[in-house]
């Protein structure tokens, strides 16, 4: 479905519910649109089930933009390119501990598991990056094992340290910078996820695996234990 959102944005909806195949399809569609080198294109914003296209209304109107987008949005084109957009595999080290993950013990108790079970289940899954948002470089990934899924906190923390790894329902993410946040924190990653040079490390469609590391390895890789 293609519909207007505002005077300069178009929303392309590929599905009604989250599906593991969608990040690759959405990344493929975004690639189709970028490759077309449309002179009126301003920005492309991927999300879980949609792709938002921002255009310059001084260069094109809504009807004409849709007519130029529609051939790129056909199921045939999207599926044809999707297999080529397998996504990079990015491995992120994580020091899982109550020292860096203040909610690890709570989550284990809530799920009827041991902390080691939470760590094993969280690091056993290959996640897809579904969307970027909330903060620069903040990648929404899914889906975590349903046995360790947990809702956001009812009262968010005022400050979550950079690198914190969290769970919210069946999503997981790493906070790129210190910021407020309400996800359940289970560890911390020493890898920078955003900088002014390379910008976001992760992109929509990427595959991510978390690797458990020791406290010593975390500190050696530049991790910080500040609260």
Automatic annotation (TrEMBL):
Q: Which InterPro entries match?
A: CT_C_D (IPR003833), Cyclophilin-like_dom_sf (IPR029000), PxpB (IPR010016)
Give yes or no: UniProt keyword ATP-binding. yes
Q: What are the alphabetically sorted keywords of the record?
A: ATP-binding, Hydrolase, Nucleotide-binding
Name this polypeptide is given: 5-oxoprolinase subunit PxpB
- In this record, what's one Pfam family? CT_C_D
Which organism does this sequence originate in? Marinobacter shengliensis
EC number of this enzyme = 3.5.2.9
SMART domains, from UniProt? AHS1
Quote the gene name from the UniProt entry.
Answer: pxpB
Entry superkingdom: Bacteria
Query: For the Carboxyltransferase domain, which residue ranges apply?
Result: 2-202
An example of a GO molecular function for this protein is:
5-oxoprolinase (ATP-hydrolyzing) activity
Record's keyword annotation contains Magnesium: no
Q: Which PANTHER family would you find in this protein's record?
A: 5-OXOPROLINASE SUBUNIT B (PTHR34698:SF2)
Among NCBIfam families, the record links this protein to: 5-oxoprolinase subunit PxpB
Gene3D superfamilies from the UniProt entry:
3.30.1360.40, Cyclophilin-like (2.40.100.10)
